[in-house]
Amino acid sequence: MTVDPDLALIVGIGLVLLSLLSIVAAWIDARLPVWGGAICAVGLMLVALALIVHPQGYRFGQLPDVFFTVLGRYVF
Fold first, then answer.
1. pLDDT tier at 63 (50, 70, 90 boundaries)?
2. Most buried residue among 18, 28, 50, 60 by CB atoms closer than 10 A?
3. Maximum CA pair distance of the chain?
4. Cα–Cα distance between 23 and 51 in angstroms, integer?
5. pTM
6. 11 CB-side CA count, 13 A
């Protein structure tokens, strides 16, 4: 089974962004951000996996192309 690094990168970035909302909400309510921290950790692991598996790495300017490639490949 091979890992698609583009998909791992996009899902990881999405999880990190969504976890930030949970972390901020927990901080405002004076709670521990347990689920937000766990989701952020999983997202960061997926991003790290994508950076390790992809042979050339990613540049910041490539992110929109990678996003739309993954969107076209898996959604449409």
1. very high
2. 50
3. 43
4. 25
5. 0.90
6. 14
